[in-house]
Automatic annotation (TrEMBL):
Protein name in UniProt: 60S ribosomal protein L5-2
Compositionally biased intervals (Basic and acidic residues): 21-30, 352-364
Matches recorded under InterPro entries: Rbsml_uL18_euk_arch, Ribosomal_L18, Ribosomal_uL18_C_euk
Assigned protein family: Belongs to the universal ribosomal protein uL18 family.
Length: 405
């Protein structure tokens, strides 16, 4: 069935049509919208220089004029970018595009007062960009059948001049640090330069592991891997106490292969801690054959990569070597003796990992320039003293007057 003045076919079933009747003026309004949309697209993108699209071009295609053999469409607009076909907009779909007069408009989202009244801010350390709460929740969640047993984390953080390694457990009142080790403690063991590289991270992790085990009186039972060979090592449970277990906490750090945080992890593992891990991120891991090269990893543990760079600069750029490794030269550290230096440092850490408290000077007593506040008794005594002085002065004045007469 076809209605007068309208080309839309209407299927009937009995005396009722199965589709809603479209009025003639409504259909013409849709047609006008499609024509305006088609005209706008062709004017904006249909010129030879690409219009405003910088390499984007639109061309009109009539019915059945496409190269892909699809001749069933009713015409449309072909969009091309730098000569490559991107998409095809059929004319019948243009009534869904809302084009404003003159240009395409981006309407700013209006947020009402009710939106801001119900807005919930994120945690403070999330707003500051300091804590990944998705990772933290999974690190501190404890099984309910373990009750108040602390769940320890091996936390490693890097600054410009220092490395911080801590054993931390979470509680409802905040994090509690069981033990900590810092790279600025390494000069006590013989390492005075290069306190933030992969080798120093290994030493810091080793120092923390030996320190926490000594604090828990487990250092004799779990000695760990005494000589670092670069191979993966995991501590085995002893007959009495199980090894101290902690989870690696890297914070917001990108866990790339060979990152210094895994140097600290390797040091803690060799020190005797039980930390779940994989060798895929240690320095020297080959992703092609999916195996760890122990020799390459050993070179990084003993500062071989630093020695290689020192030799390269000494041969190619002596002036840059004097600048980059000025502190090494000042301390007498050479490329040939770096490995022996780190071996001595590892032995010294195992010999005495305890923390040494530094003697701090007592605070100076600063001179007070403001008046000290007096107590009630002091003010009362001062008032009595002033009254006595006034009475004495008055009595002396009376005596002087009598003498003059």
């Amino acid at each position: 069935m076809t209605t007068p003045g309208n080309s839309v076919s209407m299927e009937t079933k009995g005396n009722r049509s199965t589709r809603p009747r479209i009025r003639e003026n409504s259909w013409s309004r849709f047609s006008d919208q499609k024509d305006r949309t088609r005209t706008w697209i062709l004017e904006r993108l249909g010129s030879d220089d690409g219009g405003d699209g910088e390499g984007i071009r639109a061309t009109a295609e009539e019915e059945g004029n496409r190269e892909d053999g699809d001749g069933g469409h009713g015409g449309g607009i072909q969009i091309e970018s730098n000569g490559v076909s991107c998409c095809f907009l059929p004319y019948f779909s243009l009534d869904h595009l809302q084009i404003s007069q003159g240009a395409m408009a981006f309407v700013k989202a209006q947020k009402s007062n009710a939106y801001f009244k119900r807005f919930e801010v994120k945690f403070k350390r999330r707003r500051q960009g300091k804590t990944d709460y998705r990772a933290r929740i999974r690190l501190i969640n404890q099984d309910k059948n373990k009750y108040n047993t602390p769940k320890y984390r091996f936390v490693v953080r890097f600054t410009n001049k220092d490395i911080i390694a801590q054993i931390v457990s979470a509680s409802i009142t905040g994090d509690h640090v069981l033990s900590a080790a810092y790279a600025h403690e390494l000069p006590r063991y013989g390492l005075e330069v290069g306190l933030t590289n992969y080798s120093a991270a290994y030493c810091t992790g080793l120092l923390l592991a030996r320190r926490v085990l000594k604090k828990l009186e487990m250092d004799q039972e779990y000695e760990g891997n005494v000589e670092a060979t670069g191979e993966d090592y995991s501590v085995e449970p002893a007959e009495s106490r199980r090894p101290f277990r902690a989870l690696l906490d890297v914070g917001l750090l990108r866990t790339t292969t060979g990152n210094r945080v895994f140097g600290a992890l390797k040091g803690a593992l060799d020190g005797g801690l039980d930390i779940p891990h994989s060798d895929k991120r240690f320095a020297g891991f080959n992703k092609d054959n999916k195996q760890l090269d122990p020799e390459v990893h050993r070179k990084y543990i003993y500062g071989g990569h630093v020695a290689a760079y020192m030799n390269t600069l000494m041969e190619d750029e002596p002036e840059k070597y004097q600048s980059v490794f000025s502190q090494y030269i000042k301390k007498g550290v050479e490329a040939d003796n770096i490995e022996d230096l780190y071996k001595k440092i590892h032995a010294a850490i195992r010999a005495d990992p305890t923390e040494k408290k530094s003697q701090k000077q007592p605070p100076k007593e600063h001179k007070r320039f403001n008046l000290k506040k007096l107590t009630y008794e002091e003010r009362k005594a001062k008032l009595i003293e002033r009254l006595n002085a006034l009475n004495a002065a008055a009595a002396n004045g009376d005596e002087d007057d009598d003498d003059d007469e």
